[in-house]
Amino acid sequence: MKKLLVVLSLVVLTGCAGIKDYIPVKWDSNQSQSITTIQQSSRNFDCRADIAQQAKTLASHVEWFEIYSKSKPTRDVIVPAEKMRDTVKELADRSSKGSVSITYCEIKKKIIIQQADMIAHTVQGRLF
């Protein structure tokens, strides 16, 4: 009987390990401020100006958000933040190597804005 209880306890505890992924994270003013900065930077991104410098600055904001999110138990925005990081990094890398077409920049800008808005909806929709 004791062995059954031990086995049952292990199964239950192991099964509960993934439950943490579904528990909402509390609202965080640092994440909210950071994602709002990213939203503002992406909306103000000027594809007719110095793309490389703007992309570098935006990449820095995204990196801060991602590092901060990973350093706390925030699992709900990690994957979208990584995808946004990759999108911004692509733009930054390409623009640092030379000229980027306005059309390419506008497409990337639109994607980054959508990604930032999705993450902001998650971060700022949390309860206290």
Main features:
single chain, 128 residues, mainly alpha, 5 helices, 0% strand
Précis, in short:
The protein has one domain (26-124).
How would you describe this structure to a colleague?
By secondary structure, the chain is mainly alpha-helical. 72% of the residues lie in helices and 0% in strands. The chain starts with a helix and ends with a helix.
Blueprint (SSEs and pairs):
Blueprint: H1 2-16, H2 29-43, H3 51-70, H4 78-96, H5 102-124
Helix pairs in contact: 2-3, 2-5, 3-4, 4-5
Low-confidence stretches: none
Q: Please outline the major beta sheet.
A: none
What gross morphology would you assign? elongated
Number of domains: 1
Radius of gyration: 20 Å
| Secondary structure: number of strands | 0
Average predicted local confidence, pLDDT:
86
One letter per element, helices H and strands E, the order comes to HHHHH
Number of helices: 5
Helix share, percent = over 70%
